[in-house]
């Protein structure tokens, strides 16, 4: 699905980071965007940025907590009231979990990550996909992570929920394509992206506030991606009808290592071992 001036997109977690990058990429292509976020106070600056850049598209803001089914239903109603249709549903809102081994992670952490990252995506699917099916066209773009393709030790609630989003999206894509070739789903699995995910997760109480001055990730990891690079890669994958998109230097290698290990364990050899 290509983004045109007719496209209406909704983006959860859209006030910051990858979500804001996606919103920018859609309005720059002429589409309309409903930017949604749990942080109501972050929406005005995001809208000013999107509507003040001379882009052909426009953005409106709606506050919603994706872990609440009623909020996501209301978001779908607001989108339909404002634009009369929805074409691209970006279930992107997310948090990071504290760094510690699986057995030390608090039940509250597991609960929060599952409610936001898994149930949040499920609520997005339940509230919006019936509109896509009724229209006979549209696409779901779910943000997971490279941690959805390969394990990230020390972040088991994050890894667990991101794997769930990958499996959910692959299944959804099959179900949608069985109805129409104009329907589909894509999962975005980036490596490290230059966003305030840690600071926002701390503000929302998911992790402790980092001590000391803010870390300049660009100086530590010059290969870090910008949100806009990730957004453009995601929209290219949506246009091409690809189910997976995984921008970032080492993501393909990490996914390859996991697939090799999986096949070695279950059939005794990795694809690379085949003669
Ligand atoms: N930054 C990275 O390196 C990276 C890498 C791979 C995947 N991701 C994933 O990308 C997604 C976006 O993260 P980001 O890096 O852009 O961080 P970000 O903090 O800049 O954006 C996430 C947004 O989600 C919002 N949010 C959090 N909980 C919410 C809720 N319950 N309801 C609605 N909105 C909520 C936050 O307020 C924030 O604006 C997340 O799912 C994250 O796990 C990030």
UniProtKB/TrEMBL annotation:
UniProt KW Calcium keyword: no
Coiled-coil intervals: none
Entries under Pfam families matching the protein: adh_short (PF00106)
GO molecular-function term, one example from the UniProt record: oxidoreductase activity
InterPro entries: NAD(P)-bd_dom_sf, SDR_fam
Keywords, in A-Z order: Oxidoreductase
Superkingdom of origin: Bacteria
Segments crossing the lipid bilayer: none
Keyword Oxidoreductase: yes
Protein family membership: Belongs to the short-chain dehydrogenases/reductases (SDR) family.
Name this protein carries in UniProt: SDR family NAD(P)-dependent oxidoreductase
């Amino acid at each position: 699905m290509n983004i045109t001036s007719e496209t209406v997109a909704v983006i959860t977690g859209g006030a910051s980071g990858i979500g804001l990058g996606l919103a920018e990429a859609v309005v720059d292509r002429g589409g309309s965007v409903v930017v949604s976020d749990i942080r109501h106070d972050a929406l005005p600056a995001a809208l000013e940025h999107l509507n003040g850049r001379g882009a052909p598209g426009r953005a409106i803001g709606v506050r919603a907590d994706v872990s609440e089914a009623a909020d996501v239903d209301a978001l779908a109603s607001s989108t339909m009231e404002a634009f009369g249709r929805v074409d691209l549903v970006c279930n992107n809102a997310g948090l990071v979990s504290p760094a510690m081994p699986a057995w030390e992670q608090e039940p509250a952490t597991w609960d929060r990550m599952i409610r936001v990252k898994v149930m949040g995506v499920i609520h997005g699917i339940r509230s919006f996909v019936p509109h896509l099916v009724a229209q006979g066209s549209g696409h779901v773009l779910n943000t997971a992570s490279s941690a959805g393709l390969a394990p990230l030790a020390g972040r088991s609630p994050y890894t667990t929920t991101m794997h769930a989003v990958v499996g959910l999206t692959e299944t959804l894509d099959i179900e949608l394509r069985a109805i129409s070739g104009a329907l589909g789903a894509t999962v975005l699995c980036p490596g490290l992206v230059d966003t305030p995910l840690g600071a926002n997760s701390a503000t929302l109480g998911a992790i402790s506030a980092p001590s000391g001055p803010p870390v300049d990730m660009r100086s530590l990891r010059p290969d870090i991606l910008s949100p806009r690079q990730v957004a453009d890669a995601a929209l290219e994958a949506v246009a091409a009808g690809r189910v997976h998109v995984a921008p970032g230097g080492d993501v393909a290698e990490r996914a390859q290592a996991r697939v090799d290990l999986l096949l070695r364990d279950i059939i005794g050899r990795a694809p690379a071992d085949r003669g």
